[in-house]
Design goal:
This protein has about 500 residues and is of the alpha/beta class. The chain has 15 helices and 23 strands. The protein binds adenosine-5'-diphosphate (ADP).
């Protein structure tokens, strides 16, 4: 791997990335740094500026100072700049894709063809949606009620490492479109593309201080940002324990916060399903080495087809090639970090010790070494066991069977999560009946992962608080104001 370290920048596969913060339109160093390591081979990618309360304070001050002018910028001009950012992302797809793959280990081909184009789409979508964001007027006995979406102020966005730039821009784009300023704190395990985005945004003409990037640990930079009293919104994607800490911090200032958290989503396969489709959807859950909050990690199959489903699943999963995420033929890459690998393996060891059977996988890939974990399917698992109830965030699925539709729904809903659910059935009525009973922010029927950006996204129960997407994003990132005007009293001149 070509990595060259200098004081303020790294070159990752030939792409130069500034490793300092981006605050108020300037690159800012910190007294300390942290080391960013590639999950592909453990190589050091660079020393990254390690933000503390000092940089958090500076970034919030910059975002606060830039807010009035950006909030007052006409919508069409804000939309034009967001489209220019999308143009910049599209011009740099290759750079962003290669850097993201080195930093978080996800497949280069999906970064190139799916994830980074989607980053550009996030900006285009919210730019266009802003222009269609209407005002609503209601009439009460001649009094006009005029409802407007006012920008809220500086927003802190805290993002995870599993899809760094995609999830960051899913928040940045609507926050900026709404007229807010932003401080992004990317995850410490994959901070590099956030820095490239700052370059792209500056080149696109986004004014200084409108987008700021503070790097560092959650417990240092992150906690200082989410607890800052001048921050008007906090949007977080990550784990449940961290959400609890952030919720306590935002509660102190009554800062509105949105939480997109984990899941333990079910994939229900009924005997009337297209079995090949069901198997394809089940194997797809190994995407990104299982590091996807939406992943349907609990496969629930009707008794009568369980053996056939399992046979076909194993045949298909065995075709998945594990290896270097830069190679076109690779189907599953490494997990992000040694700590994550240990966590995944801990879950699997405990499940096996409790009587689970590994249908496939069941441990790290010892041939490849490093951070590669074998795609795993565990059967003979109890509904109340840890492996069925807790999010693993690795390539580990469980297999359970059910006899009746009611039993399937009961098993599907019996965790503390409610992010998504997938139903595979050939019966339209059953799809409607089952879907209506599932506790989930998103229900997929005979498909997975497809979603219009106009639709709401979020989770129920411990999978989150609030919804983002389409107008739901604007509802969150705006202060909604109703102005009631009396029909009389004007002294119009001319
Ligand atoms: P994981 O445990 O999977 O790494 P986290 O939920 O801890 O996931 O991390 C998601 C994001 O939250 C990261 O950017 C991380 O730095 C940040 N974070 C962690 N702890 C805090 C905190 N106390 N305050 C603010 N942000 C935090």
């Amino acid at each position: 791997m070509t990595v060259h370290i200098t004081a303020v920048a790294v070159a990752v596969a030939g792409v130069t990335v500034d490793t300092r913060h981006w605050i108020g339109g300037e690159r800012v160093a910190s007294a300390g740094t942290f080391t960013d390591v590639s999950p592909i081979d453990g190589a050091t990618l660079g020393e990254i500026a390690r933000g503390t309360a000092t940089e958090a304070e500076a970034a919030v001050a910059a975002a606060k100072a830039a807010f009035p002018a950006w909030a007052g910028t006409p919508r069409a001009e804000r939309a034009r700049i967001l489209h220019a950012i999308a143009d910049g992302v599209e011009k740099r797809i290759e750079d962003l894709a290669i850097v993201e793959t080195h930093d978080n280990g996800a497949l280069l081909r999906s970064h190139r063809r799916g994830v980074i184009p989607r980053v550009a789409h996030n900006f285009r979508f919210f730019a266009d949606r802003l222009l269609r964001l209407g005002h609503e007027d209601f009439d009460t006995r001649g009094h006009t009620n005029h409802v407007a979406w006012d920008p809220a102020g500086p927003c802190v966005l805290i993002t995870p490492w599993n899809a760094p730039l995609m999830l960051a821009t899913w928040k940045i784009a609507p926050a900026l479109a709404a007229g807010n300023t932003v401080i992004l704190k990317p995850a410490e395990w994959s901070p590099l593309t956030a820095s490239l985005l700052a370059d792209v945004a500056a080149e696109a003409g986004l004014p200084a201080g409108v987008l700021n990037v503070v790097q560092g640990y959650g417990s240092e930079a992150g906690s200082a940002l989410v607890s800052h009293p001048d921050v008007r919104r906090v949007s977080f994607t990550g784990s449940v324990p961290t959400a609890r800490t952030i919720a306590a911090a935002t509660a102190a200032n009554l800062t509105p916060a949105s939480f997109e958290l984990g899941g333990k989503s079910p994939l229900l396969v009924f005997s009337d399903a297209d079995l090949d489709l069901a198997v394809d959807l089940a194997v797809e859950q190994y995407d990104n080495a299982g590091q996807v909050c939406l992943a349907a990690t609990r496969i629930l199959v009707e008794d009568s087809i369980a053996d056939e489903f399992t046979r076909r699943f194993v045949a298909k999963a065995e075709q998945l090639r594990q290896g270097d995420p830069r190679a076109e033929a690779t189907g599953i890459g490494p997990n992000i970090h040694s700590r994550q690998l240990e966590k995944i393996d801990g879950f699997v060891r405990r499940a096996l010790a409790a009587g689970a059977r590994a249908v496939i996988g069941g441990g790290p890939n010892t041939e490849l070494g490093g951070l590669f974990y074998r795609p795993t399917l565990l059967a003979d698992v109890a509904q109340d066991s840890e492996i069925v109830q807790e999010e693993v965030f690795g390539p580990v699925l469980t297999l359970q069977t059910f006899g009746t539709e009611d039993e399937a729904v009961a098993l599907a809903n019996d965790t503390r999560f409610g992010l998504a659910a997938t139903v595979v059935t050939g019966d339209r009525e059953r799809a409607g009946r089952v879907g209506a009973q599932l506790v989930a922010g998103t229900v997929w029927v005979n498909c997975f992962f497809v979603r219009d950006l106009q639709a709401p996204f979020g989770g129920s129960r411990h999978s989150g608080i609030g919804r983002e997407g389409g107008t739901w994003s604007f509802d969150f990132y705006c202060d909604i104001k109703n102005t009631v005007t009396a029909p009389r009293g004007w002294q119009d001149h001319g």
